[in-house]
Amino acid sequence: MSPIDHYTEKTVDSFDGTTIWYRVIGSGEPTLVLCDGVGCDGYVWKYLIPHLENQYRIVHLNYRGHGKSEPPENLENLGIEECVEDLKVVLDDAGVDQPAVLLGHSMGVQVVLEFWHRYPERVLALVPITGSYGKAIDHVHDSGLAKQVLPLAKYVATNFNPLIKEIWKRVVHSELAFLYAAKFEINKNLLKKDDFFPYLEHLSRMDPLIFTRTVEGAARHTAEPFLHEINVPTLIVAGEADKFTPYWISRRMHTIIPNSQMLTLPMGSHTGPLELPELTNLRIEKFLEEVSDRIATDGKQQHQ
């Protein structure tokens, strides 16, 4: 493969004036759009981007208050709905005028599903990856504990923010945090430590109030009422051993979305694309080829 011939980084002001950062990598159609999980700034795409950047144009943004994007002045504007409107502004600014393939990891699954719901004409296909279709914290570890703890976490982040920021920074970006994740969240036998630490590093730099408010937005949103209406090709990628988004959630999404396909990552966790990159990349590549073939076939039929 030849090196990519295109890479740009840009910022654009969203509907409420919040400055959103995004990058465009490679060229080729259809455009692929990458939507992260909460607290993430792109670490999960480490192996997928190099695999596809010579075939497709890839657009990747940082959510408001994440990475290089600014937080909103109004902290009420940190929900899934605001992320969707940010994505629309980014695609407009990037000149993406044809339907795109939306790939979402973790909370990004809710973002891409809601984007389809609001702007179906702009979506060619969907790839939800190890994420829930809604109310994301209700079933973390198949327990209601996260839902119960969230109000307390929000209260602490709101009322003790300067102190919590320093504690957050020290604890999150630490060996202790990795050990916790290795025991409860990820498959330490499959995931390289160097592939996971960028997530902890970025998360440690986030304002904990922004993080908790964004989680709150994901907790109240659900795409379940319209899953049965989705009429574009959909490939669901699920981790068999995912504890953050239990496997049954992906299975249920698969049964509700008409004609959807599903890839199960054996022993894969919430970070499945990093644990089993070859399987993930090749299956997504095959799916994209199927989508492109369908476009070509439909185009021929229209001209006959």
Structure description:
- By secondary structure, the protein is α/β, with parallel strands linked by helices.
- It has helices at residues 48-52, 80-93, 107-118, 145-159, 161-172, 175-184, 193-205, 208-220, 247-256, 272-275, 277-303, and strands at residues 7-13, 19-25, 32-35, 58-61, 100-105, 123-129, 235-239, 261-265.
- The strands form two sheets. The chain has a six-stranded mixed beta sheet, with helices on both faces. Strands 7-8 form a two-stranded parallel sheet.
- Strand 3 (32-35), helix 1 (48-52) and strand 4 form a beta-alpha-beta unit.
- The longest helix has 27 residues, at 277-303.
- The chain is globular and about 60 Å long.
- It starts with 6 loop residues before the first strand and ends with a helix.
- The mean pLDDT is 92.
Helix vs. strand class: alpha/beta
Main sheet properties: 6 strands, mixed
Mean pLDDT metric: 92
Indicate the proportion of strand residues: 5-15%
Shape: globular
If you compute it from the alpha carbons, what radius of gyration comes out, rounded to the nearest whole angstrom?
19 Å
Distance between the termini: 35 Å
Q: How many helices does DSSP assign?
A: 11
In spatial order, strands of the major sheet run: 1-2-4-3-5-6
CATH class of the domain at 7-134 and 221-303 equals: Alpha Beta
| Number of separate strands | 8
Query: Low-confidence parts, pLDDT < 50 over ≥5 residues?
Result: none
